[in-house]
Design brief:
alpha/beta
């Protein structure tokens, strides 16, 4: 686990929104030396019906989030949404960096085809607990769900099991 967290991570839109909805975007700055947000993901964040995009942007900038830009392969863009394609292209272009992504299809493409290390928001909370950064993950997962972020009941149950809750 330490190697994974010793390098930058490239984040997709969903996890950033989910973390911001519970006011915990700070966990990224505590777990990774740098979080890379491709321009396409930053643009998606601006278009989302999130209540306060300016507040989210300030939070991201405060935790050394870098905006990068990489052109994705046309086939990648044809199979995934623009943000997911940009995340995978950025992570690949920067030496197979880990990817923070929740969408199932994007995770499969990133891990199986591009052989990138992938973690989702649930796994991020499990790792945060194992690293001693949070004492419990149940309220965090429940807060994300009640805030409108989709985390299926099976995923939540598995995260709680792995976290020993």
């Amino acid at each position: 686990m330490p190697y994974f967290f010793d390098q930058p991570i490239v984040s997709n839109t969903g996890p950033l929104l989910g973390l911001s909805r519970i006011g915990r975007i700070d966990i990224l700055g505590r777990m990774f030396p740098q979080v890379i947000v491709p321009r396409e993901v930053a643009d998606e964040l601006l278009l989302t019906p999130y209540a306060d995009v300016d507040d989210l942007r300030r939070e991201l900038e405060r935790f050394t989030i870098t905006i990068g830009a990489t052109t994705a392969e046309p086939l990648l863009e044809a199979e995934l949404d623009v943000g997911e394609a940009a995340v995978i292209a950025t992570a690949s272009a920067r030496g197979s960096l880990p990817v923070l992504m929740d969408e199932r299809k994007g995770r499969r493409v990133a891990s199986i085809i591009y052989r990138l290390p992938v973690i989702g928001t649930g796994g991020l909370w499990v790792a945060a607990k194992r690293l001693g950064l949070v004492s419990t993950i149940r309220p965090l997962l429940e807060g994300m769900r009640s805030g409108g972020y989709h985390l299926g009941p099976t995923l939540v149950a598995e995260c709680l099991r792995r976290a020993g809750e």
